[in-house]
Records
---
Amino acid sequence: MAFQKTRLAPSPTGALHLGNARTFLLTWALARQQGWRIVLRIDDLDGPRIKPGADQQAIETLRWLGLDWDEGPYYQSHDLQPYFDALRHLAEQGLIYPCRCTRAEIEAASLSAPHAGEHELRYPGSCRPAQLVTADPALLGQPDLAWRIRVPDEPVEFSDRRAGQRRHDVQQEVGDFLVATKLGLPSYQLAVVVDDARQGITQVVRGDDLLSSTPRQLLLYRALGLGNVPQYTHLPLVVGPDGRRLAKRHGDTRIDHYRQQGVPAERIIALLARWSGLPAGDRLSAAEFLRHFDWDRLPADRVVFTTADDLWLASSPFAPPSSPFAPRK
Ligand code: GLU
């Protein structure tokens, strides 16, 4: 079988929580079981949301849990040239165009237009030139000027290893999406495709909140003339009791928070293992998880994190008793 490669790609926008940790553990175990190489990539282009130090913290947390990788960490922010080369290529072909629309303008214009019902607004095409025109690449990277790609009117089809056969009408869902933002930076969609392609990623494994991004990324592969489109695997997310993606509203589920309380990594892996179809146990190392993890037993549904899980972690037989005088956060 040809050489395969995947990536762990944390965004340093905050500390890793139980949901991120489960996705990374599963990606890692799948890769190690299948003999894929693993790249660690820090997706740090999301301007204002990036938290200083969160990259090192994520790396440390992954190591503490017992995960490892073969290449990296590579930082997206360290060299923007490959993204601008890709943008220039798209601009020269007239496939992207500059856009100055504000969010309020898009909101107003798309009130009557259909959109995906997700967080993202559908772009109604206000700045789209009527014809394919070569955009001036000198304008790339200019502040206050975003860039959008012309999305065709036909559906994109692909097969996801877990979600199965998919068909998305990207034009209906989000319209001409951003490839560069008004901060003069490449968008998440563009950066991920450029990186996955140049890093030789053949297997993308990530949370299913990114499933709807995949057809956009496939359109970019096509527009950039990149071959070797990866195989995609979208893992069901961990959600709170309200069915929403695990977040602050569900309490402090950061791995570092449990670690500070004295909860050992093996206790956390044991919970993640129970969430991944392995028999429940009091503790488990990442290496043991790897030995026993069975892809076919991975639950098909999203995992619900409850306060019982939180109590179970904190009641770890290995944790020192918590002091009633500990400062409350
Ligand atoms: N960095 C992204 C995130 O943490 C993942 C990127 C990807 O897997 O495509 O959500």
---
Amino acid sequence: MPGTQIYAIANQKGGVGKTTTSINLAACLAEAGRRTLVIDLDPQSNTTTGLGVDAHRVGGSIYEMLVNDGVTVGDVVKPNLHPNLSLLPAKVDLYAADIELVYLDQREYRLQRALEAVKPQYDFILIDCPPSLGLLTVNALTAADGVILPLQCEYFALEGMQQLLNTIRLVRDRLNPRIHLFGVVLTMYDPRTKLGAEVVREISEHFPRERFQTVIPRNVRLAEAPSFGQTILEHDPRSPGALAYKDLAEEVIARAAATEATHA
Ligand code: ADP
Ligand code: MG
């Protein structure tokens, strides 16, 4: 078993499946017996609510942990929401962090430092990033081993990608030499349209090695699940969406082990 793997689920575009992937990939990694922590780093708090935690009543959240030196992961984590699945919740106050962090010491390393102490407790840590390339995302990229990039199967899927890839490069040069594009996951694939197949082909050409073979289909069960505060494994474990995220989890586990082996 490799050491703790930390992945930032990032794309500065909104609505591409970052949160859906964070919740359900985490749920499937947990179900496969991997100790998993999901970090909600988006002020919209959709990962928090999607896992059934009321973002208005959460008490301590990741905001306090990032801006106050005395607040630790242990103070704010929601442990074992499901077997093997814990959450660092967010709430709306996190909007202030992108600005407040500017004035803090070690502003790009706040998340990395906070995670250091708890890393050994987890096999996988997934960070759901906000739809921007501000300091919150930079904190995620600084703390992570790799980026998982969700791309929606639509025209313009690759638009804006250069900015994200440049940001990853900048973070690698200055803040975190480990960070790299770990994988690209295609989301909301509709097999009935020609467009879907075309986009899959285009993205495969762009990211031949990074692309995961698993493609996440457009599946209404995935869209419904968060309104019940449920992962897809609770909401409809036999749905095409659930099966796809289980396959993706297997791919992530295998690729993580292979990556670790080459870097060891
Ligand atoms: P992001 O976090 O990148 O903004 P979300 O994961 O919140 O994206 O997804 C955007 C919207 O699309 C949400 O309403 C979500 O429920 C829906 N969605 C995401 N993935 C799928 C899918 N595979 N099938 C159907 N709906 C999806
Ligand atoms: Mg989101």
